[in-house]
Amino acid sequence: MNETKRPTGFAAFITIWLTQMISVLASGMTGFALTIWMYQQTESATAMGLMQVFYITPFLVMSPLAGVMVDRYSRKLMMMVSDLAAVLGTIFLLVMFAFDKMEFWHLYLVSALTGIGNTFQWPAYSAAISTMIPKEQLGRANGMMSLMEAGPGVLAPILAGALLPFINLEGILLFDLATFLIAIGGLLFVFIPTPRKTLEGQEAKGSIWKEAAFGFKYIFARPSLFGLQLVFFMGNLFSGIGFVALAPMILARTDQNSVVFGTVQSTFALGSILGGLLMSAWGGFKRRAHGVLLGWILSGLGMASMGIGRNIYWWIPAAIFIDLVQPLVNASNQAIWQSKVAPDLQGRVFSARRLIAWLTTPITPILGGTLADLVLEPAMRAESGLTSAFGWLAGTGPGAGMGLLMFACGLGAALVGVAGYLFPVIRDAESLLPDHDQLAPAETAQA
């Protein structure tokens, strides 16, 4: 197809957005079904948390190199890598189930493969949007991306729970596989502009290792950007530890009731949809740093509230509130970076940025799972000093220790947002850094 006849600009963005939403729906169904299967096999928060470890470790190791590839090569191709990796992983699981050879550690292998593929997806999508959408609309576009990620989550657990008795896990995996092909087709159909080359981007060229290091140097040389990353580093540390306990806490407190678990999962996604719709229509605060810092405060308080809940009537409003503010945090932060970093540098810079923010992620499931399984959960099921001190807050018995863990981590995440307001270099990041299209002509000269 002639490039001029392909959808461009916002039409291209909508095409990608719709086809990816279909794929995310199917992947959400698969994730829900596999979570239930894993808990039935292990009944362990640690074993479930290791899924995240195997996903995030190769993700972080590959991130600097993936950023270089995104800046060097076609961003459309880089966006397809994650879908192709997911296709291979899904086919592997289908074969294992077909021959009745499936074991829980196979999910760790697939998680690692998915992590490698997704290393390329986020920086490629983020950088591509910068070339497709005017900067004034970035807040709304990133709000729509939040909808793409969360919207199908409302239906995914419900559909998976309803369909599992009829089509089994294999049927859900087949549906997931088909939607990956739809997502790849959407990417092939549209035109994505090549970013203009800047002088800084040309000077950063060199070996793959030099270019991989450039993203970190860029961030470290700009205290405001580095400060924003520290906010996400610390916020992700607390929320990562706390949310490891979410699924086993609900299942433990409901005698493994998958309907309750699925309903709560869906209401998280409902909150994200409401938040995404709000951001899509509103675009966020004029000073986007408020969206980042205030959002962390509110979401942390919501997680603390989730931890002390003991039934579905408490969990549903808490879940909606937590994810209602997440699109505000992420879309505001994303818009800051897309406005400040030149598009031909965004692959490397955004990959380094995510690695810094997620650096603690491989250990948080282990920390959270260990604290829940070996410390807090046993203590809150028996007569102990911890029960006497916090039993009134988190209750006692199965799930109470995991709930107490979520409460403490939620307070920690809220304090991260408060701390951000205390440092002008973070609070005033937008006024301290120029937009990339307002730099002196020599810094944006065409190569």
Describe the model.
The chain is an all-alpha fold and 447 residues long. The protein has a single domain, classed as Growth Hormone, Chain: A, CATH 1.20.1250.20. Helices cover 80% and strands 0% of the residues.
Keywords:
18 helices; globular; 447 residues; Growth Hormone, Chain: A
Summary, kept brief:
By secondary structure, the protein is mainly alpha-helical. It contains 18 helices and no strands. The chain has a single domain (3-432), classed as MFS general substrate transporter like domains (Growth Hormone, Chain: A, Up-down Bundle).
List the helices and strands and how they pair.
Layout: H1 9-42, H2 45-72, H3 75-98, H4 104-132, H5 138-189, H6 199-203, H7 208-220, H8 223-243, H9 246-253, H10 258-282, H11 288-308, H12 312-340, H13 346-357, H14 364-380, H15 385-394, H16 400-421, H17 424-427, H18 429-432
Helix pairs in contact: 1-4, 1-5, 2-4, 2-7, 2-13, 2-14, 3-4, 3-5, 4-13, 5-10, 5-12, 7-13, 8-11, 8-13, 8-14, 8-16, 9-16, 10-12, 11-12, 11-16, 14-16, 15-16
Q: What separation lies between the terminal Cα atoms?
A: 29 Å
β-strand amount: under 5%
Q: Supply the CATH class.
A: Mainly Alpha
Give the name of the CATH superfamily: MFS general substrate transporter like domains
Largest sheet: none
Question: What's the number of helices?
Answer: 18
**Average residue-wise pLDDT:** 83
Based on CA atoms alone, the radius of gyration comes out at 22 Å
Instruction: List unreliable stretches of 5+ residues.
Output: 440-447
The figure for the number of domains is 1
Q: What is the H/E order?
A: HHHHHHHHHHHHHHHHHH
**Fraction of residues in helix:** over 70%
What sort of overall outline do the alpha carbons produce when their principal axes are compared?
Answer: globular
CATH topology annotation:
Growth Hormone, Chain: A
Helices and strands: which structural class? mainly alpha
Number of strands: 0
Task: Tell me the CATH architecture.
Answer: Up-down Bundle
